[in-house]
């Protein structure tokens, strides 16, 4: 496509063709044209160029909640790097403010907050995404979620416009945010965390990490929870287990025996196999419990 050539010419060394299996935790997916963008201006320019020329785009964090198509992606995959992937923490009043780029690695940012004595991100130490992906998804665990901490988000719209949104305007819900509905890229975030006792914070963070190691199949590639918790319903893991899905396979994709809401890649699983397994799981739960499960994972291509 001529526009893709134009993008390659304009963004030069920021552009590469990457096997998406190397860019996602499921380790599945064909090739994608990836733009690693180091600043808001480049991000705004890339989005508005793609949008105005009708080229599909997808912003990818660590790919820890994404199923990339076997055929790859026929558009541009945007990642945030450089200044958009850093973070810093400083004191404010009786607490701490973290300023982070959307591409900043969540586990290391959360770890740094814990070490500094800032409390609130302990739940995120074991979530292998980026800050931007976590805000977009309103990631959460163990009673905490990103929405508890966000003061301000700097986001870039599909037309390249840059907006600053206060936490209350981010439309956070369960695994939901305004950024999903308005297709906005989270470029930067300010989080507020109260001061706590460093010893207690570190102990709590490592307790939660231990719990994850026991509860989840972390030794094989996966993308975390496949389905969302149904409103007022039991957890999807229980529904899937009751529906007899534990250990069910499609090729190398398997519903984990450790936690039924995880699909693991036993080696060479394809996106097509994962999709088939997701459909089988959904049908099995609907038949058994009358509940229609909705995916938490997102599709790239
Ligand atoms: C082992 C494991 C454990 C997990 N545990 C949890 C958990 O406890 N709680 C939980 O909520 N999730 C969990 N997850 C899922 C996942 O890590 C989170 O949803 C995470 O926030 C996704 O971040 P990411 O950067 O990897 O986003 P990606 O997976 O790359 O993308 C997910 C979605 O976010 C969008 N996105 C990414 N970056 C941006 C950005 N800067 N701006 C706008 N949109 C963006 C993408 O377009 C996509 O739609 C887990 C995943 C794994 C593999």
Overall description:
With 301 residues, the protein is an alpha+beta fold. The protein has three domains: 2-82, Uridine Diphospho-n-acetylenolpyruvylglucosamine Reductase, domain 2 (2-Layer Sandwich); 86-215, Uridine Diphospho-n-acetylenolpyruvylglucosamine Reductase, domain 3 (2-Layer Sandwich), CATH 3.30.465.10; 236-300, Uridine Diphospho-n-acetylenolpyruvylglucosamine Reductase, domain 1. It is 30% helix and 24% strand. The strands form five sheets. It has a five-stranded antiparallel β-sheet with strand order 6-7-12-10-11. A four-stranded mixed β-sheet has the order 1-2-5-3, with helices on one face. Strand 6 and strand 7 form a beta hairpin. Helix 3 packs antiparallel against helix 6 (198-215). The protein is globular. Flavin-adenine dinucleotide is lined by residues 25, 58-66, 80, 102, 127-130, 132-134, 136-137, 139-141, 179, 185-186, 216, 218, 222-224, 298.
Tags for this entry?
single chain; 301 residues; alpha+beta; Uridine Diphospho-n-acetylenolpyruvylglucosamine Reductase, domain 2; Uridine Diphospho-n-acetylenolpyruvylglucosamine Reductase, domain 3; Uridine Diphospho-n-acetylenolpyruvylglucosamine Reductase, domain 1; 3 domains; 5-stranded antiparallel sheet; 4-stranded mixed sheet; 8 helices; binds flavin-adenine dinucleotide
